[in-house]
Design brief:
The complex is a heterodimer of chains A (336) and B (434). Chain A is mostly helical. Chain A is 73% helix and 1% strand. Chain A has helices at residues 3-39, 46-67, 77-106, 110-132, 149-156, 166-188, 190-200, 202-207, 212-237, 242-247, 249-259, 264-282, 286-292, 311-325, and strands at 145-147, 164-165. Chain A starts with a helix and ends in an 11-residue tail after the last helix. The chains are: A mainly alpha (336), B mainly alpha (434).
Chain lengths: 336, 434
């Protein structure tokens, strides 16, 4: 029995990666949930919006790197992020004007908008692959670890190491700042309040003189920022590959639905629920159990409940369970 | 101009385009376009049944198609020697146990009164069941995968004629559709979309990773064929003589003849399915479905069971996709899970249905042929366009190389744009619903 080492191993392989991944999913799910609340459709193009934003950030990062600009220990991508956000805002506003606006004015059924967003997905995906290619791209620089496993072992004299990657630190800090800003905006500013009013009751909001086009515009801009930040953080932490971003749709939607579509708090909670279920179910528990279980009872196998290839299955099963038991999600979304 | 004349002209245009391909490129590729066009049309019929008749949004076509492919392997491949005795029955037993666990959990859920006790017992049943399931499954899987892994390493199939796998593929897809439909139908329309997207990814993940079932990414190759092999035809004096009589050399004649046989088989399936879909469309059942699609509330007020009808049509449409998937794997004679991409097997079929005309079976078939033709021809056209654009650039410039290399991604872009343009300017498609 060695609970301290067990806890360190657990933090190293489950808690810290889970929190970082959960933050990325939460930011993604916030974008989906906002589009759903205000524009009232499930935006399938969200994954590829993230990919486009990340691509813009990567291109700027490369430009800065070639100019010799850097943030020292932090990745240069943080410097490029505002430019990526600006590009994505222009992109989604342009898409809204050319594509979505027409259907909004026609008051088309939500499912039509979903199909349209699927079309947008593939155009975005095509452009992304056209510009940057379909392969993995690496754009991480700066210091790799805030604390490496070896330093930790030397510092504490424990057998287990605890690594804390710079990208994980940045992800968590950025996510907290972004979420705090978003909630301040939604609850305290006039524009944010008009957004919530519009989401709660469209007709009433229109009667009180809220300009719907302005609400839609602000929503798209926030969504673009969230998507770019989420995509860049994910790309820094793991790697950037256009197809992975399309596949991220499933955990992101699962997170948004588990939390309750249309509810920002729910999106965050859902992001962490999905992330932790994925990590805990696909993690091989041998090491942690080896420390916790008494001598002789330690497991022989890997104690991995499912292989990592099935991580999508985990989010999917959670999604199905929530749909079966509580279709409105944990935080009472607006959908039935 | 009546509708019939217009439709005939549309189909004639496609026929001309394919004939032109035959003269300009080769008859082999023209026949291949027809064969794949037939399969695509069948998939489009399935999606049209769901979307055009009932307004159900299924983005998991890929998964149902892949299940059909799996059926082709499981039915037609010869059983692997010794695999069943070493681990096959244990795997089946483990799977049965897994299913029993889930059923038991569902039963508990229904029988017991809501409360902490119920939650705890359901979780206990699931957890204990899962560990026993893994304890039974893992050694059996290892034993099976250890048998000559370079060639087999899987259970193999039943060694039955491959044609049987077509209806079986439909059954597999119907089973998956039932599972999804039971949970996601009756909720918001978007939920079905997300659930189908998920099941498709999971089916592909299972096919890629469960080596004992279909060798995973190692692929199953050399599936038995329902038609003769080219090499046998070339060694058959009677065939060579007949080919020479028509002025073909034996190699060309044999490849063309095999393709023609496939086309005949596929066309037969398409005609049967089309006839059934047309009958369904003009039956009281079809009218009921369209009534539900156009006004769910009113249909429900008339006493129609909306969720049950949706489930029915969702299962039927998915089954058709499964049949098409089995046919496609039969023609390829191989199952390669790595090649299933949502773009090719889900999105493309949607473009076919919407461009052809949702709600019209002939539209789906027209769309199937037209979009498949474009899909095949866009890449050479994109390359040609890129060569034209970059003609003025200096040889060896990085931009030129990049542009030419990227021509392969033109397909995504083109199909996305085609879909958006049709949805915007001609939402009823080329052959609108009547």
């Amino acid at each position: 029995m060695d609970l301290l080492n067990a806890f360190i191993a657990l933090s190293n392989y489950v808690l810290i990666p889970g929190i970082a991944y959960g933050s990325q999913l939460a930011l993604g799910a916030l974008g989906v949930t906002l589009v759903y609340g205000i524009l009232r459709f499930s935006n399938f193009a969200h994954g590829d919006t993230m990919a486009m934003g990340t691509m813009a950030t990567i291109l700027m990062t490369w430009l800065f790197q070639s100019m010799g600009l850097s943030l020292g220990v932090l990745p240069t991508a943080l410097l490029a992020l505002p430019f990526g956000i600006a590009f994505t805002m222009l992109l989604v506003l342009g898409t809204d004007k050319v594509v979505y606006k027409f259907y909004r004015e026609q008051k088309a059924k939500p499912v039509i908008l979903v199909i349209v967003s699927l079309g947008v997905t593939f155009i975005y995906n095509g452009i992304t692959r056209f510009i940057i290619g379909a392969d993995d791209q690496n754009f991480l620089d700066g210091q790799r670890f805030i604390m490496s496993a070896r330093d930790f072992k030397e510092m504490t004299g424990l057998r287990e190491g605890l690594a804390f990657k710079t990208t994980q630190g940045i992800t968590i800090v950025t996510a907290i700042i972004v979420v705090a800003l978003l909630f301040w905006f939604l609850n305290k500013t006039r524009a944010g309040k008009s957004m919530r009013a519009y989401s709660d009751n469209e007709d009433l909001a229109l009667l009180s003189g809220i300009n719907p086009e302005r609400v839609v515009m602000i929503t798209w801009m926030i969504v673009a920022a969230l998507a770019t930040i989420a995509g860049t953080l994910y790309g820094l932490d793991k790697s950037f590959k256009p197809f992975t971003y399309f596949q991220l749709l499933l955990p992101i939607f699962a997170a948004a639905i588990v939390g309750g579509l249309g509810s920002p708090v729910g999106a965050i909670a859902g992001g962490f629920v999905i992330a932790f279920s994925e990590v805990t179910i696909t993690y091989a528990w041998k090491k942690v159990l080896g420390y916790v279980m008494p001598e002789g009872l330690q497991p022989d196998g890997l104690v991995q409940l499912m292989s990592t290839d099935y991580k999508f299955a985990v989010s999917f099963v959670i999604l199905l369970i929530v749909l079966l038991i509580k279709p409105t999600g944990l935080f009472k979304g607006k959908s039935v | 101009m009546t509708q019939t004349v217009k439709n005939t002209i549309l189909f004639a245009i496609i026929a001309l385009m394919i004939i032109y391909t035959g003269f300009a490129q080769s008859w082999n590729s023209a026949l291949l376009i027809i064969a794949m066009g037939l399969i695509s049309s069948i998939m489009a019929l399935g999606v049209n049944l769901q979307w055009g008749f009932a307004g159900l949004f299924n983005v998991g076509v890929m998964g149902f198609v892949a299940l059909g492919g799996l059926a082709a392997v499981l039915v037609s491949m010869p059983p692997t020697e010794g695999a069943w005795s070493t681990g096959g029955f244990a795997i089946l037993g483990a799977l049965a146990l897994g299913a029993t666990t889930v059923v038991a959990a569902v039963m508990l859920m229904k029988r017991m009164a809501a409360g902490t006790l119920r939650t705890l017992s359901v979780i206990a049943v699931l957890v204990i069941g899962f560990f026993i399931f893994r304890a039974l499954l893992d050694p059996a899987v290892q034993a099976v995968e250890a048998i000559n892994p370079a060639q087999t390493g899987y259970l193999g199939g039943l060694g039955l004629p491959v044609l049987i796998s077509w209806p079986v593929g439909g059954l597999f897809a119907a089973g998956a559709a039932w599972l999804i439909g039971k949970t996601a139908l009756g909720l918001r329309s978007d939920y079905l979309a997300i659930a189908t997207l998920g099941i498709a990814e999971i089916i592909i993940a299972v096919l890629k990773n469960e080596d004992w079932m279909s060798r995973g990414v190692k692929n199953v190759i050399g599936l038995p064929r329902p038609v003769p092999y080219e090499i046998d035809l070339q060694n058959n004096p009677a065939f060579v003589e007949r080919a020479a009589g028509l002025g073909f050399d034996p190699v060309d004649a044999s490849t063309l003849w095999v393709k023609l046989l496939y086309i005949a088989l596929f066309a037969a399936v398409l005609i049967v399915l089309l006839w059934m879909s047309q009958r369904a469309l003009h039956s009281p059942w079809g009218r009921m479905l369209r009534a539900i699609r156009d006004n769910e509330v009113a249909a429900e007020a008339m006493g129609k069971d909306v969720t049950a009808r949706h489930l029915q049509v969702f299962i039927l449409g998915s089954a058709i996709c499964g049949i098409a998937g089995a046919m496609m794997t039969t023609m390829d004679s191989q199952l390669t899970p790595g090649t299933y991409q949502p773009l090719r097997f889900t999105f493309l079929i949607w473009v076919m249905v919407i461009v052809g005309g949702s709600g019209n079976n002939f539209g789906a078939i027209l769309g199937g042929f037209l979009i498949w033709f474009l899909w095949v021809q866009v890449e050479p056209m994109g390359l040609w366009l890129m060569n034209l654009i970059t003609a003025g650039m200096s040889e060896g410039s990085a931009l030129k190389a990049h542009l030419i290399e990227s021509a392969a991604h033109m397909r995504l872009l083109t199909m996305g744009i085609v879909l958006l343009l049709v949805l915007r300017f001609s939402p009823r498609g080329l052959i609108p619903e009547r």
